[in-house]
Amino acid sequence: MNPFNSFILNITVSIIDFLYRGRDYQRFWVLEEIARAPYFAFLSILHFRESLGLRGPEHLYLMEEHFAQTLNETEHLEYMESRGGSAYWVDRAFARHLVLIYYWVNVVYYWVAPRSAYDLSYGVEVHAAHTYEKFLENNDDERIVEIMNDELEHASELLNAMELIK
Asked: Which of 18, 66, 73, 77 is 20 to 30 A from residue 131's alpha carbon, by CA?
């Protein structure tokens, strides 16, 4: 990961971990709410580039991947909601304000430096997988195992996307 992305990710993770200490499903819900934002941003920029006639050979593949990732993250979000992750208004307000910021940061970042935007999202997905892995050390939840594996798959897909847009 590039140093700037690592710095931003580490600060954000520290804040969320502090705020959601002992509240696993609420933290997971916030993380899943946020996790969809980059894929929405990537799709927005890909559509915008297409409108400007700047479509590249990887364009359709990336749109399909990011749309599928968005749907998958939404499924994760719904599971966390079913476990009470969005039960408190303060969690919903925090996540929705944070996701607005994160979305627009990703829009600009993807337009200006798409590889760096993918790098940041890769770091987020790897962090999510590690977060779920820690949770599973003390808890048994088969759906979380599936979600953790999905996050690792997203990370792999993001690495592939970085290779495509060299």
From this structure: 66
Q: What is the pTM of this model?
A: 0.92
CB 107 within 8 A of CB 44: yes
Segment 111-120, tens digit of pLDDT:
999 999 999 9
For residues 42 and 66, the answer to whether their CB atoms sit within 8 Å is yes
**Spatial distance between the Cα atoms of 89 and 44, rounded to a whole number of angstroms:** 28
Structural domains for the chain: 3-164 (1.20.1260.140)
Kindly report the number of other CB atoms within 10 A of residue 100's CB atom: 11
* Spatial separation of the C-alpha atoms in residues 13 and 19, rounded to whole Å: 10
Give the helix, strand, coil percentages of the chain, each rounded to 5.
85, 0, 15
| Residue 91 per-residue DSSP state | H
Residue 83 DSSP SS3: coil
Q: What is the CA radius of gyration of the chain?
A: 16
